């Protein structure tokens, strides 16, 4: 199958390679000429036979908005655009409406797999009409992991459903990563435990907490015992925030996900104003000692 692919970053570059290895003809566009197959989106459209299918894999927000708008101007009736980036699901309906006015169909695809997707395959959560999803199925089948389709691919519902599912997926991911990280810190704090990395390595098989994330932490601890080479400062992509916001809107309790999001915020504070206030309060009401800056460094 022929596909246009917009965005050849860490994931898009590997997706192009996986699709080509699977026998598809992929024409890629990226602003960086050293990785791009064509010079512009107009050239991309011109290189594809109609009806065309174009997959967008660029950062969410304004970059996706501008890309969708430009595609609406160079594509035509009968074409299909798939947004595989981490767009917020509320942006999908406006994108579908903009493209639909030109007779261009739209599918949103949540994609999980990171840099490992090239060899392991990508977990896919898609939203759109039955006909539009079926049209792109050869692409989805090549990108997803091997095995039964339902074990790596799901047609979640209409436009927006795929990105909603991916948003929740990332919220769950936040909570899982925090739980594994807290477990590591607790193991490392106890002198009885000789090798926390060995514990995480042992959990890789036979335990109820085994997972890919757990195995990746075991790998990270093996590569850098004590994690001395990295800072604890942790960014968030936005999807954890969206998950908590949607949970509030739907009145669904997600304390684990919310706590993991706030833990990332806390990681960015060199000296927490909250904990300074707690220390001051303990001193005020109970006379508990406080460490001065000169004492604590």
Record keyword descriptors for this entry.
alpha/beta, Rossmann fold, N-(1-d-carboxylethyl)-l-norvaline Dehydrogenase, domain 2, 2 domains, 7-stranded mixed beta sheet, elongated, 6DGDH_YqeC
Helix content estimate: 40-55%
- Biggest β-sheet description: 7 strands, mixed
Tell me the series of helices and strands, N- to C-terminal.
EHEHEHEHEHEHHEHHHHHHH
C-alpha end-to-end distance: 62 Å
- Output mean pLDDT: 92
Number of strands: 7
Coarse shape: elongated
Name of the top-level CATH class of the largest domain: Alpha Beta
| Share of β-strand residues | 5-15%
Which structural category fits the helices and strands? alpha/beta
Under CATH, the topology of the largest domain can be stated as Rossmann fold
Task: Lay out the secondary structure.
Elements lengths: L1 E5 L3 H12 L3 E5 L11 H7 L5 E4 L5 H13 L5 E4 L8 H9 L4 E8 L4 H4 L2 E5 L2 H6 L1 H7 L9 E5 L3 H29 L6 H7 L9 H12 L15 H12 L4 H13 L5 H14 L6 H4 L1
Parallel strand pairs: 1-2, 1-3, 3-4, 4-5, 6-7
Antiparallel strand pairs: 5-6
Helix pairs in contact: 8-11, 8-12, 9-10
Q: Please, could you describe this protein's structure?
A:
By secondary structure, the protein is an alpha/beta fold. It folds into two domains: 2-158, 3-Layer(aba) Sandwich (Rossmann fold); 167-267, N-(1-d-carboxylethyl)-l-norvaline Dehydrogenase, domain 2 (Orthogonal Bundle). Helix content is 50%, strand content 12%. It is built from 14 helices and seven strands. It has helices at 10-21, 41-47, 62-74, 92-100, 117-120, 130-135, 137-143, 161-189, 196-202, 212-223, 239-250, 255-267, 273-286, 293-296; strands at 2-6, 25-29, 53-56, 80-83, 105-112, 123-127, 153-157. The chain has a seven-stranded mixed beta sheet, with helices on both faces. Strand 4, helix 4 and strand 5 form a beta-alpha-beta unit. Helix 9 (196-202) packs antiparallel against helix 10. The model has no long low-confidence stretch (mean pLDDT 92).
């Amino acid at each position: 199958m022929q596909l246009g692919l917009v965005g050849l970053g860490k994931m898009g570059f590997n997706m192009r390679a996986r699709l080509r290895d699977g026998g598809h003809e992929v024409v890629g566009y990226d602003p960086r000429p050293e990785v791009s197959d064509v010079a512009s989106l107009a050239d991309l459209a011109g290189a594809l036979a109609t009806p065309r299918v174009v997959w967008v894999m660029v950062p969410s927000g304004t970059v996706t908005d501008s890309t969708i708008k430009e595609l609406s101007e160079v594509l035509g009736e009968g074409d299909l655009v798939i947004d595989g980036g981490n767009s917020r699901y509320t942006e999908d309906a406006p994108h579908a409406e903009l493209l639909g006015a030109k007779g261009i169909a739209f599918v949103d695809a949540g994609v999980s797999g990171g840099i490992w997707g090239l060899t392991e395959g990508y977990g896919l959560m898609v939203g759109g009409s039955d006909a539009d999803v079926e049209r792109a199925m050869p692409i989805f089948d090549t990108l997803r992991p091997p095995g039964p389709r339902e074990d790596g691919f799901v047609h979640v519902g209409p436009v927006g459903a795929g990105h909603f599912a991916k948003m929740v997926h990332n919220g769950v991911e936040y909570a899982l990563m925090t739980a594994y990280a807290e477990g590591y810190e607790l193991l490392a704090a106890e002198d009885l435990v000789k090798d926390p990395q060995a514990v995480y390595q042992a959990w890789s098989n036979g335990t109820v907490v085994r997972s890919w994330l757990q195995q990746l932490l075991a790998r990270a601890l093996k590569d850098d015992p004590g994690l001395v080479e990295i800072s604890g400062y942790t960014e968030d992509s936005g999807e954890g925030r969206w998950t908590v916001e949607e949970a509030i809107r739907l009145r669904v309790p997600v304390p684990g996900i919310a706590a993991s999001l706030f833990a990332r915020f806390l990681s960015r504070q060199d000296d927490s104003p909250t904990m300074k206030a707690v220390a001051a309060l303990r001193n005020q009401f109970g006379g508990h000692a406080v460490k001065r800056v000169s004492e604590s460094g």
